Amino acid sequence: MKRRVFLLLAFLLALVPLGLLSDAPAWGEWDAEYFQKVLGYVPEGIRHIGSSIHLPILLSDYQLRGVSEVAGYYLSAFVGVALLFGLYYTIYLLVKRRS
Amino acid sequence: MHIPDGFLSPETSIATYAVAVPLLIVGFKRLKRNLNEETLPLISALSALSFVIMMFNIPIPGGTSAHAIGAVAIAILFGPWVAFVAISLVLFIQAVVFGDGGISTWAANALGMGFVGSFVGYYVFRALKNFKFAPFVAGYLGIVASALFIGIVLGVQPYFWSENGKPLYFPFGLGVTLPAMVGVHLLIGTAEGILTQIVYKLVGQKSLEEVLA
Fold it and tell me: What count of CB pairs under 8 Å joins A to B?
């Protein structure tokens, strides 16, 4: 039962570059240039936050600078999956230690 | 469906955090209760599955795209509270590591994709329990409900926060956001429905009861 879910996960991981087929952004997830183009201005809050929040995003837009789109997307998928497994394992250890 | 930073007013961010944090505390307690050697791999794998499925951007007519979420599959297997926490963790990693969605908007995204989707999906599934395609319908309606919530949160921004007639944050009102968000997800609902049905079939009710017993 568990094995089948892991196989599904592996299957989807292998196919993940298919997610790159659409280069259209999701509805409502536009960047500042979109608003400039459509409205003729960028709403204050969106412009302001664009220049104030500067987190060091390592794999921005699921891509790594200097590697191909497909490689970056694969890498992002594996990193995300690994982080989630690590996160849950950490939570599990913390829960176990306390009980 | 990931609202980026800057699209919501600070007031909206604070309000959504104020609602989401207490709910997350409840959810974490449920997760702790359900987390053991048997369930750990499955909950981790289903959360990873949610992360990966969100990377499959499906083109939608009209120059946009959308993706399934995978919340309802977790909700019908482990309950809506666990699903809400799981999706919130996925969204956190997406925001911090991949710049997908925002930090100030994390709570709003978690409430929409996590809480609303999980609970609607869970109760639809419960209501249709004996119907063969209950997981599909639950997944379908769950993601449409999530889209409705996100559409409302985005769409109210220009009514409350404008200056000299110019919106300060997300500029389009409910007349635009609701048809767009709900419309897109009436199509994407099919993907969420199929995913939910497949995962439910793969895990199987019997073996799940063994795990949770």
Answer: 180
